[in-house]
Amino acid sequence: MSQLGFRFLARRTPRKDAEPKVRGLVKYTNDLEYPGMLIGRIVRSPYAFADVKKIDVSEAVRMGAVVITPDDIPQKPFNPRLVSVDEVTFKDTYVLTYKPRYLGEPVAAVAASSEELAQRAAEAIRLEFERVYKPILDPFEAMSPSAPRIHERIMKGDKWIDVENNIAARLDYEEGDVERGFSEADYVLERGFKTGKRYHMQLEPKAVLCVPEPGGKLTIYTTTQSIHNTRILISQLFNIPESRVNVVKVPIGGSFGSSIQTNYLVPIAVALCLKAGKPVKIAYTREEDMLDHSNFVFHFKIKMGARRDGSFTAAEFTNILDVGAHQVQPYPLLGTSLGWFVSMYKWRNLRYRGIAVYTNKVPGCALRGYGAPEVQWAVETMVDEIAEALGIDPIEIRLKNYVGRGDIFWGQGPTVRSVIKSDGVPELLLKGKELINWDKRGRPGEKKGRYRRGIGVARGFHTSGAGGPISGEVIDYTGCILKLNEDGSLDYLTALQDHGGGTLDAHVKIIAEELGVPPDLINLASASTENTPYDVCTHASRGTFVGGECARRAAQILKQKIFETAVRILGRVVNPEALRIGYDEKLGETVVYVEGSDLKITLREITRTAWQRNWGTLVAAVTYRATSAPPSFTVYYVEVEVDTWTGKIRPVRVVAGADVGIPVNPDMVEGQLHGGFAMAWGMAFSEDTKYDPSTGEIMGRMLITDYKIPTAQDVLPPEEFKVLIANTYEPSGPFGAKGLGEAAMNPAVGAILNAVYNAIGVRFYELPVTPDKVVKALRERGETPW
Amino acid sequence: MRVEFILNGRRVAVDVEPSETLLNTLRFKLRVKSVKRGCERGECGSCTILLDGQPVTSCMLLTLQVEGREVTTVEGLEKDDLFRRLVEYFIEEGAIQCGFCTPGILLTAWAGLKQGRFKSVDDVREYVANLCRCTGYVKIINAIYKAATGVAGR
Amino acid sequence: MYRLPEYDYYKPRNLEEALKLLDKLGDARVLAGGTDLILDMKTGRYKPRSVIDIGGLKELKYIIDTGEALRIGALTTIQELVDSPIVHSKTPLLWEAAIRFAYWQIRNMATIGGNLCNASPAADTAPPLLVYNAVVKAASLSGERYIPIGDFFLGPRHVSLGRSELLVEVIVPYKSLEKYGSAYAKIGRRRGHDISVVAAAAAIRVEDGLIADARVALNSIAPTPVRARSVEKYLVGRRPGIEVFREASKLVSSDVSPITDVRAPAEYRLHAAMVLVEDLLLESYKRSFRGGQE
Fold first, then answer.
1. Which domains does chain A have, with CATH numbers?
2. Residue B129: its pLDDT value, please?
3. CA atoms A774, A777, A781, A782: torsion sign
4. From C124's CA, which of A68, A374, C197, C246 has a CA 20 to 30 Å away?
5. Which residues in B lie closer than 8 A to residue A116 (C-beta atoms)?
6. Domain B2-76, architecture per CATH
7. What confidence tens digit (pLDDT) does each residue in B73-83 have?
């Protein structure tokens, strides 16, 4: 990793919000209070698939609570996630409903002056059911002609459509001639894969505070990855002009995709607030958070064809997506799943069938990677198998076929294509190989004894945002405001969120680098929808690549204005192009100067003069859409040890490589990889919400006692985790940078399970791989003593 | 019912319900927001406080149980040298991402340091069992071990 | 599931007051550390009319070495067991279970008395205490009563304490295990804090090259923590060795009745139990040469 002569970038610096975080001063949504605030609680359906006949609120009302039922809310269906354009947005959700379609779906809500009172009032509401149906928990069962319809009619855009066979959405795609491709193959492999239903388990349970302001305005504070989309949705649902809805950016305790959409509690709180005329806060319990949204369940059927020399000739990919009870845009997920698949390797001929299906489960929403961890696990497993069958080195086969520099890439879907300009894959694969001692890994058949070790590799990527040259089905643009204060310090406003990965710190460093102003003179101003240009959402690892580039452009514009102002002051300089700006170490100041002369003026003097002479404010407001979404590549080498008697597996060593272009925050690159690996470990071995087949309730009563995420003891000791950062530069990114948040995790599961295969010679096609599955597989091969 | 205890060195007296948890008393009545509600089931550690210097999950304590005892949160350690050193290591290592688990982890780590429990990296991993979803723990462990020994864990 | 129920709260200042309250109040639950009771009240498992907080009874916090046994006050916390040098050296099985118990924050509040009286089939302190043939002392207004640990657990969350009895002490006779080698292990779903999928403790004594006595106890694999009597019976009189231990471990199936739950399938529990038993017997045997314990 080279410094490349950056003054502020590519250096480890303490994050700006570190101090408030360690002192416990950061106020997350549930820490906020407002005088006169009521606390809201949601009444949830006890049945997974039912029709409510009557909601008896009399006792709750008598207790003095504010109560709302579906009758209090305009019954228009919506989709909580506004990232897709309206024409392909499928709407089947209602703020409250008489027709709950999953156990826990909000049916009514109350607000009272204390949590205790609100809870009692909620418990006092009586639900009477017209009909209770047996829940459908399997998408294949849901698609069968005899299955009852979970939804009958939904909206797509502004049109009503009928739902057949519980199919929520479809996406098909073909390229080339698949049959010919398979006929040209010397080896064809077909496999099926299934995942569990994971839950985000971000440490902060979601919350919202809605405050009515004078003049009919609403201020909303909530756990969200998109303040603007929250505002737009609330404005649409309640028919309030956007200028009277302000959503304030609040620090968020992790998200991982769970708040890309505007979650149930937000419109519910708004409705309670409107009815009560008072501020209302709702904070989920952990169990409610698990009931709000979790991940999709993926069922894949994949067929790959390869020639003897290892080049791929064709692929067929069927993706059955178990959506849960409501759509949070599985349609674009069908597209990105395809995009991830297509962009892993050059298949040359391809057929894809994607079907999203309703079931009576918690609605699925994006979980870090939006299908990529699942797809890349499946692909990397099969590529490993093909390599073995053909006798080709697994690293060589990947290098031979992968989509890399110079290739056309469309990770986010068919309408978003660009050419890859930076690619650290060979560097990472080859360096990592040495570090993990790849050549000494041995074959599964050679390994004996109770404890067996194995090494696996996998590579993957994620896009940096979802930008593109043409506007397609995905909305992706951002904006920011950067202004110079009268003393030369800066205020920076952006709607982008920092979930913890340090995105906004990256923006500050980018601005610092562009203007030569030290980061601690750049203020990350409090942002809300009313003082920021639109940003679609902090997701798709776009925070640095898209947001950072927007910040850089704003800084560039300001730079020009600074130069123009300097010209006015300096008098002798005719042309602003002669000016330079930079940080003068000796002076300890940012200065504007002319190369090859002694003309110099501090930024402080420039801004002060502009102020004193009434010349005006130097400010830049930028709105920006990236024209590409370049991939950030990651490579994982993982060594595991399997206890073949108990089926328990532990990580031994990891080498994680990331190609992020220029790493703006090297610390945070490492942090993302550590976190990504931990999440992958949980995905591989323990994380799943299991549903009771007769009731549709999540087993274990939604307690996280039974939703295990890794602890410090489950992941590696620090000295065994090595990070490699590739030496690359992305020309379309701010100072050569790309994103990382999701790429940090995507291929890790594949690497982990390829390592398990190398240890015990068993491949697993269903997640999570719990110890009992390991033991069962070994027992079937006669390899266990019992 | 009235209960008196010492919060960050100051005597406090509050009126509480028998069923009130210390977490709720701290957050609502005493306005100590650094103590977080992560799960309220004693699983995640975000609500960790020190009770007579020992880390406990405040969501699983009735306020009435802490009568006459000492409760410490990060606000109470601001001037403590050991805490400041620990915090410096955290910031330097980059052990903070979203920050939600941070106060709970800092208290646990501080208590462990004070009690001399961290003789090895494994000790840190054993005693600091709070959940974190962002960092993958590596930098947290490094920061704590550095604070314990002045050497990096790597 | 969200809020704690309403109850009358009492905080006795000494044991006698506590016993009087227990005698007087029907439908009361005793609050020690609270790590079980508070969760159970939050989830609605228990909705007692009264809660008797015995946390202030300092007279129930002690660890006394009588030379033959450890007498442990019921309110001794699990972390206090971990930090006690005499627990570590005299009753090492109990120490090993204590360090594997949940995590530090929970150990600082959870008590040995609470863990036993809660009587979860997964009670962490049970397997070691069963192997030590511990005895618990119960007190009431009518006096004291000694209950062997084997008779203490009647069913899931059901113990043989009378309504007005309070568990006050756990007596762990370590002297009798002096010539034994012993070991403990716990299998959870992750290495960090977890409720056991199955945990076990074992101790064996070898005399003249033959197994003179064997004790094996498990949790999470039957309605209560149990001694694996079939395993023990098989071992006595045999020559210690891997084959014998392997055969013995298979017999554990006669002593247990594992269930499938959200944590693990029954089949796996049984399998894991067999692995554990063999591992522990082997480890115990090794340690019996070195004089008992590491």
1. 18-25+477-624 (3.30.365.10), 29-135+210-280 (3.90.1170.50), 387-467+628-780 (3.30.365.10)
2. 96
3. positive
4. C246
5. 17
6. Roll (3.10)
7. 999 999 999 99
